[in-house]
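Write out a record, focusing on structure:
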Amino acid sequence: MDMRGLDVRELECFLVLSEELHFGRTGDRLYVSQSRISQLLRKLESRIGARLVERTSRRVRLTDFGEEFAVALRPAYDALASTVEEARTRARGGRGRLRIGFQGTVYEQVTRAITTFHDRHSDCRIDLVEIPLSDPFGALRRAEIDAAVVLLPIEEPDLTVGVTFSEQQQYLAMSTHHPFARRKNLTAEDLARTRLIPLAGPAPDYWKRVHCPDSTPSGRAIPQEDGVHTLQEGLTQIAAGRGAMLLCGATAKYNFRPDISFVPITGLPASALGLIWSSSGETPHLKEFATTISDFER
């Protein structure tokens, strides 16, 4: 096969599609349209000379050839990504770097862990990168970051949860003019009497349902507003009286403002954070950083 003109995006597209088996979710993960996914797949199949994917109106599946190709391609693709990262490290004079994503707020436990990690590993720098609240996994899968501190749950087969921490009660954030604003506490059933602001974007449905449920534990419908992508978008909508959001205790504490009330809510699972990374990109430094965060949980 002539390797000239080979587009790495074709390979990335095929590998993501082999995991998702869904053109829409693949497009969401890669931030491209479904038609672009189809185009990249056709180009790769034409380049190889064989069908890799069978698509019907009901399902998407790999052909036998496609399954064999995915198994053979994955380690080679991961090795290529690792080679590029090693070259970047050498270009920085041998100094390592961890790019850690965070959603909305960098918690004290994480900043303390970063300081301790730097004291122990002067050869490795940690950079913090904000990622959208509505897309906890995208930047990680695009290799824009090495790990991310995100809200649980995580049910992604290609991602590893290095450590779980900061389990806290949930709060309902609402305008100070909201009828619930003066309440000392709320229950999950109270959510049926307000409008929640959901998270838009490519986050998986199971993740969205946890952080913005569409029904109470007893099955009562919870009205929904238009979705937002970031925490600050959500807080702005809340302050304008356009709905409420579920937030963990630490986020409520760090984002105090006079036009928003935060009231604890019972009857919902506690929120928790996880440090996650690509299962194929685990490194000793990542594992050490996870251990450092865990040390501050005790």
Remarks:
- The radius of gyration is 22 Å.
